[in-house]
Every structure is written in C-alpha cells, then in structure tokens.
Amino acid sequence: MRYKKQFLIFAFVIKNYQDVKEIYGVHNMDRGIRLISQYLKANYPGITFFYCKEGRFISVASAGTDSSRLCAELKERFTGPWTSKETELYLCIAFAKLTSDTEIKSVELSISSVISALNRAAKAEDGLCAVVCENDIKEYIKEIYVKKILELTVEENLVEVFLQPIMEAGNLRVIGAEALARIRDRDGNYISPADFIPIAERNGCINTIGEQIFDKTCKFIKENSLDSIGLSWINVNLSPVQFFVSDIANSYDEIIRKNGLDFNIIHLEITEEAMVSQSLLLRQMESMKKKGFQFVLDDYGTGYSNLTRLQKCPFINIKIDMGLVWAYCKEPNLLLPSMITSFKSMGFTVTAEGIETKEMAEAMIRLGCDYLQGNYFSRPMPMRDFTRAFAMFA
Ligand code: C2E
Ligand code: MG
Ligand code: MG
To answer: By CB count within 10 A, which of 1, 113, 172, 213 is most buried?
Structure first.
C-alpha cells in the first residue's frame, strides 16, 4: 500500500564515533551516548529518539516538527563537550531526514533509506543534513535487488567473465586483455559492475566473487592457447578490499597452481583506495609478489594514487584513467605528457584507457603510451566471442 507519510523521520550520526571509541575507549563512548540520550529526552519531550548502534540516533516525529530548527539546535549543542564526572567528549554530527512530500512504500523502507542517507552525510562535511528524496528510495530498492541477484550469482557461481582487448601501441595488434565481471538479473539483462562491485565490496561478497572470476579466467587460459589469440597476458581486477582477507596470497596461488599456469600470464589490476591503508596494501602486495604475482595500477588519476605512493608499490604497468585521457584529447594540456614521461622514467609501462576514436589512439601513441584499451578497438565481449574474434588476427 502506498501512502503519504504523516510523520517526519529525522536522524543524526556521530561522525567521529569510531575514532572517539578507539581513542577514549568503549566505556567512555557509551557514557557519551547516555549523556546525549538524556539531553534529547530532557529537551525534546515530544520526540522519541532511538539509539540504533554506531553513533546513530533516529526519531519518528510528527509531520509538523521543525526539522531545520532541530538541526540548528543540535548542531549548536554539539559544538560543546559532553561532560560527566568521568568523561569529556567532543563529538561532531551529521543529519538526515525524509522530506514531507516523499511518497514511500513502507515505514521500514523509509527508515532504511534515512539510514543510508545518514551514512552518506557522515562522509560529507560536518553538520550536513541529507534529505532523502524519491530517488534515494529508488536507489535503495535497486540496491536491495542487486544485492539479491549478487547473492544468487555467487551462490551458484554464475558470474560471467568478459574480455576486452589491450593493444600494443607500436603495431596496434592485440597483446593482452582485461577480464571484466558481468552478472545478469532475472530477465537476463546485465547489471553493470559499477552497480554490483561496490555492493560486493561492502558486504564481503567480493572475496568469493573475486576468486570465482579469477578461477574462470585461469580456466579460460588453461583451455585456450593464449598464443593462438595473440595474447601475452590477461589482467584480472582485484579489489583492494580483498586484501582484508589475510591468506589471499595462498588462495590465489592455489588457483594458479590448480590450473597449471605460469604467474606471468596473469596480471592483477588494483585501484588504490582510501579504505585500505598503504601498509596493508604493501604487505599483501609483497606477499603475493613473493609467490610470483604481478600488479598493474588501475584508473590512475581518479583517487588516491600519487607518485610517492606509487614508488613504494611493486607495479609493472600504470593504466591512465579514461577521464584524464578524454580531458587531454578534448583540450591538450601539459599534465598528461609529463605524467607519462615520469612513469616511463620510473620504469613503468603505461596503458591509456577509454580510447574511443582513431584520433584518441593517435594522440596517446604520440605521448608514448605502450598500450591502448578502449571501445574503438573492441568493447568487452564474452570469452567465447573473444576467442572467435581474435583467433583470426593472431
Ligand atoms: P576498470 O577496471 O577500469 O575497467 C574498464 C572499464 O572501462 C570497463 O567497464 C570497460 O567496459 C570500460 N571501458 C573500456 N573502454 C571504454 C571506452 O572506450 N569507453 C567507455 N566509456 N568505457 C570503456 P565495466 O566493465 O563496466 O567495469 C567497470 C569497473 O568495474 C571496472 O573498471 C572495475 O573497476 C570494476 N570491475 C569490473 N570487473 C571487475 C572484477 O572482476 N573485479 C573487480 N574487483 N572489479 C571489477
Ligand atoms: Mg581494471
Ligand atoms: Mg581502469
């Protein structure tokens, strides 16, 4: 049943909850939560706030509640400390609320949407109030749907692997390929990795699906002579979140051995991410390198990678993100040429991603890129189609 809501859902989160808990201890944090609860009860008798773990407070108030005033007052209160005999805590907060004109399907759905908006606000600036709109609710419903499909896909090992060729810049012949994951919804339509990989990373599914993709790529190599399709190697994406699993080096090593492959035939593409510390990244990369794995830095220019971090990690190749490639092709700049020159002088080979036209390919060859990848050469395609398409060019 759809209905117009008659109430306001208002929530706030302590943004520095984890840090404060780690620094001052769980007991002090608990005292802080109690102080806040007492304050809310005393100052807002008409609104019932519930504490729902990890620094999140949520309330279902009447539709007439002035949420802007509530925000302003709480913001003001949180500029001061939360003090008791044993505790003095400085906490910062962010808010989320459901707008009064939002049509919702169920109370549970709307609360879940507010919590997911709260998580978003927690990552943004202090005191921000994320307003849940219909789009958020649609996104949330979509996320639940993708989660279900993902679970089924993993359970039944149904993930598909597509391959996109990587061309050698010198002769424009295929030299390698990137393995890209695909899953299908109930109607057989593909769901984009951009939609399911972040979910898999959040719920831990990435570990199983990552191994399944790796295993399927290894099987493909075992069953097809790479030479006959002109390939020297295949790149497989490895989410840095997978580094949280301590024995990843052993499990990937086992898959390589089970399929009787050489290590130099598979490269692991990783993107540097804020959520994985540099020390964990380095430790895991080193233990995989010891086994014989080789690494490629993916999407350079999108986030956390920088030259200092780069020097410390054992990469053999750097893939320039398509955003940088497109920006240069639209309006040439000094940044990209000097970046490519620096990478090459540091001993890395360089791949340009997102090549969509002949002109873009020519521009990247002029800048000295070693390899090119993009829809101009070929879109990613199922493994069987890839073998057929490239057997004749080898
Ligand atoms: P990525 O690793 O940077 O892969 C390249 C993406 O760019 C692919 O998108 C590919 O289809 C797309 N692409 C290639 N050439 C062009 C072009 O000329 N124009 C445009 N517009 N796009 C192009 P896809 O397959 O949708 O994958 C998106 C991202 O999802 C990947 O980016 C990667 O970060 C992640 N991903 C895909 N498969 C896996 C996987 O097996 N494991 C993990 N951990 N991540 C994966
Ligand atoms: Mg990649
Ligand atoms: Mg990439």
So the answer is: 113
**Whole-angstrom distance, CA of residue 27 vs CA of residue 177:** 53
Same-domain check for residues 105 and 232:
no
Which ligand has its closest atom nearest to the C-alpha of 235? 2
Residue spans of alpha helices (H) in 44-128: 67-77, 107-123
pTM for the model stands at 0.80
Domain tally, the chain? 2
Ligand 1 site residues (CB inside 6 A) read 164, 180-181, 192-194, 197, 210, 213, 237, 239, 269, 298-299, 354-356, 373-375, 380
269 strand-pairing partners: 237, 296
Atom 37 (ligand 1) nearest CA: 180
CA of 192 to the centre of ligand 1 (A): 9
Tokens representing 328 are: 């240069």
**Confidence band, pLDDT 50/70/90 cuts, at residue 304:** low
Q: How far is the CA of 2 from the centre of ligand 1 (A)?
A: 38
More confident site: 17 or 126: 17
Task: Supply the range of the domain harboring residue 48.
Answer: 3-132
For residues 351 and 117, give the distance between their C-alpha atoms in angstroms, rounded to a whole number. 37
| Atom number of ligand 1 nearest to Cα 182 | 38
- What is the mean pLDDT of the segment spanning 246-261? 95
Report phi then psi at 303, rounded to 5: -155, -110
Which residue in 314, 282, 280 sits closest to 297, CA to CA? 314
Last residue of a domain, one of 102, 132, 162: 132
Between the CA of 263 and the centroid of ligand 1 the distance, in Å, is 23
Amino acid at 187: D
193: CA distance to ligand 1 center in Å?
7
In this structure, the answer to whether residues 349 and 204 fall within a common structural domain is yes
